[in-house]
C-alpha cells in the first residue's frame, strides 16, 4: 500500500512541475528566456533549441538578446522566431537578435490571468485523477485480500491528505503567478 501512496505523490508532483513549466512559458510583458524553449531552429537538418545555438540573456526588463555562437545561423534563428507563436518580431543587427516585449494592456493581463487559472484548474483535475486511480487500486488490493479494511481506510486518508497538499500548492503557485501578472 505504501508504494501506491509514494507513486501517487511522485505522479502529483510531476503534474505540478509541468504546470510550473507552462507558467514560465507564458509571455507576461517581461523578458523571459523560457518563451524561447519551444522555438526550434533548423540547424543542419536537425531541429535545435535556440538556447543550444546562442547565448540568450535578459539585457533590460523587457528585452532579450540572442547572440549565436555561429553567426551563420543568425538568419535561421530570426526565421524560427518569426514563424513561432510567441508574437514578437525579432530585430536583427547582423551580430545579435533583440526581442523587445511590449508592455501588456489591462485587457491582455486579464486574459493571461484567465489562462493561468485554466492551467491551474486542469492541473487540479489531473491531481484528483491520480487520487481516484490510487484509491481504485487500493480497493482492488483490498478485494484481492492484499489489504485489510483498516489499511484501505488509512491509504485513502493518506491519499486524500496528499491530494489536499498538492491542491493547496497549486492554488499558491497560481495566485503568485496571477499577482505577478497583474502588478507589472
Core attributes:
184 residues; 57% helix; 6 strands; 4 helices; alpha+beta; two-stranded antiparallel sheet; 15% strand; elongated
Question: Can you walk through the features of this model?
Answer:
The chain is an alpha+beta fold and 184 residues long. The chain contains 4 helices and 6 strands. It has helices at residues 2-24, 74-83, 106-143, 149-182; strands at 40-43, 46-49, 54-60, 63-68, 91-92, 97-100. The strands form 2 sheets. It has a 4-stranded antiparallel sheet, covered by helices on one side. Strand 5 and strand 6 form a beta hairpin. Helix 1 packs parallel to helix 4. It is elongated, with a radius of gyration of 22 Å. The model has no long low-confidence stretch (mean pLDDT 85).
Give the helix/strand layout.
Layout: H1 2-24, E1 40-43, E2 46-49, E3 54-60, E4 63-68, H2 74-83, E5 91-92, E6 97-100, H3 106-143, H4 149-182
Antiparallel strand pairs: 1-2, 3-4, 4-6, 5-6
Helix pairs in contact: 1-3, 1-4, 3-4
Gap from first CA to last CA: 47 Å
> Which whole number gives the mean pLDDT?
85
The proportion of strand residues reads 5-15%
Q: Tell me the number of strands.
A: 6
Residues in helix, %: 55-70%
What's the tally of helices? 4
The helix-and-strand class reads alpha+beta
Inertia-based shape: elongated
Largest sheet: 4 strands, antiparallel
**Uncertain regions spanning at least 5 consecutive residues:** none
What's the gyration radius in Å? 22 Å
Lateral strand order in the biggest sheet: 3-4-6-5
Q: Spell out the helices and strands N to C.
A: HEEEEHEEHH
Amino acid at each position: 500500500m505504501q508504494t501506491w501512496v509514494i507513486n501517487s505523490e511522485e505522479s502529483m508532483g510531476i503534474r505540478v512541475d509541468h504546470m510550473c513549466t507552462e507558467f514560465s512559458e507564458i509571455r507576461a510583458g517581461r523578458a523571459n528566456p523560457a518563451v524561447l524553449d519551444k522555438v526550434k531552429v533548423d540547424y543542419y537538418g536537425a531541429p535545435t533549441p535556440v538556447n543550444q545555438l546562442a547565448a540568450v540573456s535578459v539585457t533590460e526588463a523587457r528585452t532579450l538578446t540572442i547572440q549565436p555562437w555561429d553567426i551563420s545561423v543568425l538568419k535561421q534563428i530570426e526565421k524560427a522566431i518569426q514563424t513561432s507563436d510567441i508574437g514578437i518580431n525579432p530585430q536583427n543587427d547582423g551580430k545579435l537578435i533583440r526581442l523587445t516585449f511590449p508592455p501588456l494592456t489591462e485587457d491582455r493581463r486579464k486574459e493571461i490571468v484567465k489562462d493561468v487559472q485554466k492551467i491551474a484548474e486542469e492541473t487540479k483535475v489531473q491531481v484528483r485523477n491520480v487520487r481516484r486511480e490510487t484509491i481504485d487500486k487500493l480497493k482492488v488490493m483490498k478485494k484481492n485480500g492484499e489489504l485489510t479494511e483498516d489499511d484501505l481506510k488509512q491509504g485513502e486518508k493518506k491519499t486524500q491528505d496528499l491530494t489536499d497538499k498538492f491542491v493547496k500548492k497549486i492554488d499558491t503557485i497560481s495566485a503568485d503567478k496571477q499577482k505577478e501578472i497583474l502588478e507589472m
